[in-house]
């Protein structure tokens, strides 16, 4: 795969403008949806395998089924998976059954199990939902219970779907599910929404009795997908083993063989090669339902020539840019990925992670779980050093946010190099604190780790799980992962991976001061405080007496807010090592996002100021 510099050179040699090449029609987009996780142990294992080692992009989870507890545990360990709740009111297998979470006799048989079929089936006369006097209020009560139960145990639930057509078998049910979708802010996969999104269903293009036939027919289907269109393929990965050989119903007895073929196909190297060869972008449902709106640069008063000049300057300076996304007026006007990077791939954030962590503190503050003046030692009474100095006693959450802890140097590297048995919280609290908190700025990644630890302390959740319903689900951020310490606390200050558009969503969330889809998710007062210069800043690892630049030339001397840097041109940013930027320009109503491997980040910003800032016309 070509790297960024080779990409630009080829564009120049072929006389195609950089800007035009970036805006060309995308290839086909495909959702690969695996249904029925939770129904069996085999389905659980295969669902994870086809995501981790295959092409599956979305997993549909059933919560009333016997193997749901294990499924929930697996998904907690695989937070990068997009999960839909598969709403269930039927129990079709003869060898294994499941019951509702609520009392809903119009949906169950004499033994209390869900009826086996949704529609009339000659093999099960009188045992279909539609053949009985089902009650809408019981369906709604059961669906609500399943949604609440799923959200309690699986934080990354992002949408709803129906098992065996449960969400759309009657117009009244469709209307009720639409109401629940809006209430819980969970888009529901439906025929109507698919049409609105331009999402077409596809299936095997040929015979599918064996694994070999499935693979060939799946590849044949891939080769017929059209550029610029979106598709969804649905099937049920599992294994041909003793468990699944005991599962089935009249008319579908070869379940084990059939579903082993799905697993084999979705993990096939031939299939992966066909996806790549045909330029297919694998996406999840939320990529379509909660994508940022798109527009053209000219419509939003941005000069496209300036973007081309910026990319040419990046090439000339040998900067390794991985992606670029530009927003204005709430719309994406330019987006491009280079080399091995892609829209559907997450990228390491490094210290951009810190801004996500400070946002979690904002939510906890809003919910009354903490105050910025709370003493840090109050959260960790069992981890305090034997002697608590006066500076440690005075350390508050706000000092962690502004990196004015009182350390003379950042303790992060020192403590991480010590034994794996070292508790990072204990190490932080025991580290020498030479200065009074709030007195001076020292860039301190472990201070952000402490913020993550505080979130876990007051909520009982890891920070990623805490952010899911409050930030990630409303904004449509799925597939995020966050590394954890030996103590199981997510790093907070680094270790997060999200996609470029997810970064842009956070930037827009800050630009809009917490408003999203006409809802105020966080009070604007938080953003007024978080984005101003709370303290005079210094570049990481640099002391004031060693400064060799002045504020006029440095974006690291403009001040520091709550895990955000102030920048020149009255802007502010989240930034991470090697050129990860979420640059917010309030005066231009714009956000610029980059991922990169550019060690000299000031030079990267200099090119942005030189070429992209003038692109925003008044």
TrEMBL record:
Q: Which UniProt keywords apply?
A: Carbohydrate metabolism, Hydrolase, Magnesium, Metal-binding, Signal
Cofactor needs = Mg(2+)
Q: Name one Pfam family in it.
A: Beta-lactamase
Signal peptide region: 1-22
Q: What InterPro entries does the database record attribute to this sequence?
A: Beta-lactam-related, Beta-lactam/transpept-like, Diverse_Enzym_Activities, Glyco_hydro/deAcase_b/a-brl, YdjC-like
Q: Which Gene Ontology terms cover its molecular function?
A: hydrolase activity; metal ion binding
Tell me which residues make up the Beta-lactamase-related domain: 323-599
The answer to whether UniProt assigns keyword Hydrolase to this entry is yes
Protein's GO biological process: carbohydrate metabolic process
Q: Which PANTHER family match?
A: BETA-LACTAMASE-RELATED, BETA-LACTAMASE-RELATED DOMAIN-CONTAINING PROTEIN
Name-wise, this protein is CubicO group peptidase, beta-lactamase class C family
């Amino acid at each position: 795969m070509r790297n960024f510099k080779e990409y630009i050179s080829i564009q120049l040699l072929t006389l195609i403008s950089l800007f035009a090449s970036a805006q060309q029609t995308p290839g086909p987009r495909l959702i690969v949806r695996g249904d029925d996780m939770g129904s069996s142990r085999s389905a659980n294992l295969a669902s994870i395998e086809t995501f981790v080692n295959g092409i599956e992009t979305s997993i549909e989870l059933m919560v009333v089924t016997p193997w749901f507890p294990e499924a929930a545990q697996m998904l907690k360990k695989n937070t990068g998976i997009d999960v839909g709740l598969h709403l269930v009111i039927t129990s079709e297998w003869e060898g294994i059954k499941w019951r509702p979470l609520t009392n809903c006799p119009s949906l169950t048989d004499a033994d209390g199990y869900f009826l086996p079929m949704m529609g009339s089936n000659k093999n099960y006369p009188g045992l279909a939902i539609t053949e009985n006097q089902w009650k809408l209020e019981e369906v709604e009560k059961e669906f609500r219970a399943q949604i609440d139960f799923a959200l309690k145990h699986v934080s990354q639930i992002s949408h709803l779907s129906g098992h065996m057509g449960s969400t759309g078998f009657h117009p009244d049910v469709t209307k009720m599910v639409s109401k629940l979708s809006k209430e819980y802010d969970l888009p529901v996969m439906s025929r109507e929404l698919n049409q609105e999104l331009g999402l077409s269903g596809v299936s095997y293009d040929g015979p599918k009795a064996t694994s070999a036939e499935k693979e060939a027919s799946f590849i044949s289907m891939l080769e017929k997908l059209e550029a610029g269109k979106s598709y969804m393929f649905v099937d049920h990965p599992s294994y041909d083993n003793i468990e699944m050989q005991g599962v089935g119903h009249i008319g579908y007895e070869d379940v084990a063989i059939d579903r082993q073929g799905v697993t084999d196909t979705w993990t096939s190297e031939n299939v992966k090669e066909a996806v790549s060869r045909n330029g297919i972008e694998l996406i999840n449902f939320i990529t379509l339902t909660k994508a940022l709106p798109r527009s053209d640069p000219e419509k939003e008063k941005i000069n496209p020539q300036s973007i081309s000049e910026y990319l040419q300057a990046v090439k000339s300076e040998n900067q390794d840019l991985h992606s670029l996304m530009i927003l204005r007026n709430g719309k994406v006007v330019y987006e491009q990925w280079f080399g091995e990077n892609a829209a559907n791939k997450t990228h390491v954030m490094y210290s951009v992670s810190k801004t996500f962590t400070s946002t979690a503190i904002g939510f906890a503050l809003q919910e009354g779980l903490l105050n910025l003046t709370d003493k840090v030692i109050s959260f960790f009474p069992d981890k305090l050093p034997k002697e608590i100095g006066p500076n440690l006693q005075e350390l508050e959450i706000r000092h962690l946010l502004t990196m004015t802890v009182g350390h003379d140097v950042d303790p992060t590297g020192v403590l991480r190099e010590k034994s794996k048995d070292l508790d990072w919280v204990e190490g932080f609290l025991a580290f020498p604190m030479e200065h009074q908190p709030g007195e001076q700025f020292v860039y301190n990644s472990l201070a952000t780790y402490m913020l993550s630890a505080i979130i876990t302390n007051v909520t009982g959740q890891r920070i990623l799980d805490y952010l899911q319903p409050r930030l990630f689900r409303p904004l449509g951020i799925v597939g995020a992962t966050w590394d954890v310490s030996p103590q199981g606390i997510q790093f907070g200050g680094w270790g997060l991976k999200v996609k470029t558009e997810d970064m842009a969503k956070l930037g827009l969330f800050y630009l809009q001061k917490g408003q999203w889809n006409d809802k105020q998710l966080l009070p604007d007062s938080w953003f007024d405080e978080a984005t101003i210069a709370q303290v005079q800043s210094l570049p990481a690892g640099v002391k004031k007496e060693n400064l060799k630049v002045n504020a006029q030339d440095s974006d690291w001397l403009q001040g520091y807010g709550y895990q955000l840097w102030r920048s020149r041109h009255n802007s502010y940013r989240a930034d991470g090592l090697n050129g990860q930027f979420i640059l917010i320009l309030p005066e231009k109503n714009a956000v610029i996002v980059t991922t990169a491997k550019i060690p000299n980040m000031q030079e990267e910003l200099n090119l942005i100021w030189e070429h992209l800032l003038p692109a925003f016309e008044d």
